[in-house]
Amino acid sequence: MDADDEPAVQARLRSQQLVPTKIKKKGKSFKFQFGTGVDLKEVVTFTRLFATMIDAGLPIVQCLEILGSQTDNKLFAVVIRDVKASVEQGATFSDSLRRHPKIFDQLYVNLVQAGEVGGILDTILNRLAIYNEKAIKLRRQVRGAMVYPSSVLIIFTGVLSILLGWVIPSFKTIFKDLGSEDDLPYLTQLVIMVSEAFIGYLPLIVLFFTGVAIALRAIYKRPAGKRFFHRIFLKSPVVGNVLRKVAVARFTRTLGTLLASGVPILDALEIVARTSGNMVVEEAIMYARGKISEGKNMAGPLMESNVFPPMVVQMVGVGEQTGALDAMLGKIADFYEEEVDVAVGALTSLIEPIMMVGIGGTVGVVLIAMYLPIFSIAGKIKAD
Questions:
Q1: Is residue 117 part of a domain?
Q2: Which of 73, 130, 216, 252 has the highest CB neighbour count under 10 A?
Q3: Cα separation of 191 and 368, whole Å?
Q4: Do residues 197 and 270 both lie within one domain?
């Protein structure tokens, strides 16, 4: 239990009708864990069920009690119980969720707060569930596009390492035993030289790539380095088109959801910028936010940033003029989410033949280089 001091723990336990026998402050300990331990799908399920219960008229504390007992994730159950205890002590639901920022992000908490103020918490929770479901779909599309080429590349690296480290040296031994080591075709000699270099300098190769990875990671952690890489990602020939469409879909969906829920536009833009996932996009949104705070519209600054496509900027301008910006943003998000689906499919279709040709060509060259001397020896034996 998280609390400021021991009396706060005792008070919270008494409010839950529990009597502690011993209270001990927990020291800091190292715990290795991937992510938050709570999947976004579990948050969506929690949100959906919570909205249904609130709509049915159940109190928030009772909803949290039921959901905390039903979830199979023990970590999430602890979080829900902590939120319930905080609400029982008089805190608002949004402030209680804010205690767990890794699970309930700023977007989630601000929307819940807007729902509490406006008395439409069930509606807001349903919007949140829909938003997160679409975010899961978008994330799955992007990851799906990267899984196949990554898997093929890893397998290719393993196969090539086996060829260079074990197969080619075996053929070299065979050629040496046959006495034809000095009369090998140029291609065979070249492949054997590459194999010998690979074996001889393997520790240095591993050290080099490890050093490059560490250096790139260190550069990426710095704001200037992250901005540099994010700009390259957006401008890259093939992948950049997909990433730009993903950024537009995320921006419009998030901003539309926030505005439709009653969040002020300046606060909404700040939240959208922080959840954009790309520093170039984030800076463009914050630039637009600054101009809006000066009394200007949104379309002009977005056009100046050169990040968002002209069509998107024009539709945003139309939404501002008609007073239906949230609805227009939703339509843009629907369109670009479909565009992401098409672009991911096209990217996969483009990468697949390129990788197959590259892998097949490399393996084919190695096999031809190894069998050329054997064909030559067989021809000599037949002639004799």
A1: no
A2: 252
A3: 10
A4: yes
Task: Please name which of 327, 329, 297 lies closest in space to residue 312, comparing C-alpha atoms.
Answer: 329
296 phi, psi to nearest 5 deg:
-90, 170
- Rg, the chain, Cα only: 29
Q: Are 191 and 170 in contact (CB under 8 A)?
A: no
Q: Which two tokens stand for residue 113?
A: 């707060």
- Tell me, yes or no, whether 115 lies in a domain: no
Q: Can you give the pLDDT at residue 34?
A: 42
Q: Which two tokens stand for residue 198?
A: 């690979």
- Residues 199 and 100 placed together within one structural domain of the fold: no
Taking residue 339's Cβ as centre, other Cβ atoms within 10 Å add up to 17
Q: How far is it, in rounded angstroms, from Cα 206 to Cα 185?
A: 30
Domain co-membership, 69 together with 179? no
d(CA 123, CA 115): 8
What CATH number should be reported for the domain holding residue 68? 1.20.81.30
CA distance 125 to 263: 14
174 and 258 assigned to the same domain = yes
The number of distinct structural domains making up the chain is 2
Q: Which residue reads 């070249």 in tokens?
A: 190
Where in the sequence is the domain holding 78, given as residue range(s)? Answer: 6-21+29-104
Residue 116 lies in a domain: no
User: How deeply is 196 buried, as exposed, middle or buried, from its count of CB atoms within 10 A (0-12, 13-18, 19+)?
Assistant: middle
Could you identify the residue written with the tokens 């050290």?
A: 207
- 113 located within any domain: no
- Backbone CA torsion sign across 367, 370, 375, 381: negative
Q: Are 148 and 352 in contact (CB under 8 A)?
A: yes
Structure tokens at 234: 């957006």
Please state, in angstroms and rounded to a whole number, the distance separating the CA atoms of residues 170 and 185: 17
Three-class secondary structure of residue 117 per DSSP: helix
